[in-house]
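Friendly challenge for the regulars: who can give me the structure tokens for this chain first? No prize, just bragging rights.
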Amino acid sequence: MSKLPPLAAVRAFEAAARLQNFSRAGEELGMTQAAISYQIRQLEQRLGRALFVREKGRVRLSETGQRLLPTISGAFAAMGDAFAAISSDDAEVLTISAAITLGGTWLSARIGRFQLRYPDLAVRLLMSNDLVDFDATSVDVALRTGNGHWPGLRTDFLFRSHVTPICSPVLLDANHIATPADLLRAERLAPNDPWWAGWFAAAGIGTPPPPRQGIELDSQLQESIAVQGGFGIALMTPLYWRTELETGRLVRPFETIYEPGTGNFLVHRDNRVGVRKIERFREWLREELAMDRQMIPEPLWEPLP
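First reply, four minutes later:
Bragging rights claimed.
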């Protein structure tokens, strides 16, 4: 067959097959049931095969129809995404989803520079620890933590997840913290978090810390408030707290860093490669991270295996 079937017939088939009902397909497409039936019969005659099995006033997909439906539906979805991308680009609004800690610290402190560089782009920053559903939202890009394998998404590795103990200078002096073992008796936030056991092991203390009661908060943003108030020491990401560490409001007693085996990625739909606002954000993000490269060891900038 040298030419594609008429788009109207294919559209009628996709709607009827998806809804399993000619009348509902007609309502969705603004056509009569008879028109839907006519378009489908035209398509069946062109193919030389039945797409539906008609029985007792009802229809169900034939084997050929079942084979065609996923591909046809995917093609219409791709076309819809293409037109939506153009519409979204015209609006010139970049919607970013980020985890609460990364979005509320590192990114929020810098996103103004992106706005100044591209004043024609409006920026909307959403912060949540839930994975964004690109199919159900208007989000353009997300900063996501994980292993980097998300079907249907383009992933750009940024840096490996990492934490180290961080506290206030007052708490450091009051608890006479000089060695990693001293943290076993200090007030630790989320003391039963398995990352503490990982950090102690990385620091050369093989015996896991015993379970204890303590404060557990939802994000490093909350932990930073408690830490700066002198209420404990927390496992935090130094990259996010550069200003506080440089000004001395927070201190990191030890160089040991624990890497939990996950990474941070910039992700978006793989069919939106080349969209201007996304590409500009990707370029800007890498420039900003390059300025913070000295904050963490070089191996943490290497992609996950």
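The two ends are 46 Å apart (CA to CA). The longest helix spans residues 63-91. Your move, everyone else.
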